[in-house]
Amino acid sequence: MNDVELAAAAARAAADVLLPLRGGDLAGGALGDAGDAAAQRAVAALLAEHRPDDAVLSEEAADDPVRLGADRVWIVDPLDGTKEYRAGDRHDWAVHVALWERRPGPGSGSGAAPGAAPGDAAGDLTAAAVGLPALDEVLTTAPAPVVPPRPAGPLRVAVSRSRPPEVARAVATALGADLVPLGSAGYKVLAVVRSEADAYVHAGGMYQWDSAAPVAVARAAGLWTSRLDGSPLVYNAPDPWLPDLVVCRPELADRVLAAARREA
């Protein structure tokens, strides 16, 4: 398997354990804990089998500092949107599997890794898959998804169901857009890819595993991805915290970023 095929296989392996658990006797926190653990085992087993020399940064495993010197790091969220997964009747949760690769240094040949963001001197995301188990879908960086045409009507901004940030409200007001509350961060990014929303604006922080795979898929699909100030999203940083995020149709990027800056 190449790296994208492995990412997709890992996302499907997680789905294969998450869906039966969701249909079983567990509920609430017990279901969420069981799902997190089972999906982590499924993804970790495939990565260990097929890429034993690669480092891994996962929400459900201890952060091994060896990743900071590694050339290849898998960034994984085996169950993104545990609250929605536990709800039973929601589909807006996901499985994230992304590969970060170090960019060759001066004199080593090939320049930036595919999809690399300007300004990131270390490396960037080169392969990814996002599974949507409740919809029986896996979206990957290759082949990249085709973003459907935007439907008629007001623009739509995806936001957190539980705590929509004020900057997202400001962006929606500036665009004359409707807010679309959704669950997991990964699903909100893919809502833009799937044309269920036109932008996703987040502030208040998340972790690198919350967005690495969906951002890679969004980039491959031709969408704009950045921090709220327009700077690049940097992955495999020493601190896994990522303060904010914008994903949108490229033709909206200037307006979204301008509104975000005014709010800031």
From TrEMBL:
<keyword id="KW-0460">Magnesium</keyword>
<dbReference type="InterPro" id="IPR000760">
    <property type="entry name" value="Inositol_monophosphatase-like"/>
</dbReference>
<protein>
    <recommendedName>
        <fullName>3'(2'),5-bisphosphonucleoside 3'(2')-phosphohydrolase</fullName>
    </recommendedName>
</protein>
<dbReference type="InterPro" id="IPR020583">
    <property type="entry name" value="Inositol_monoP_metal-BS"/>
</dbReference>
<dbReference type="Pfam" id="PF00459">
    <property type="entry name" value="Inositol_P"/>
</dbReference>
<keyword id="KW-0479">Metal-binding</keyword>
<dbReference type="InterPro" id="IPR050725">
    <property type="entry name" value="CysQ/Inositol_MonoPase"/>
</dbReference>
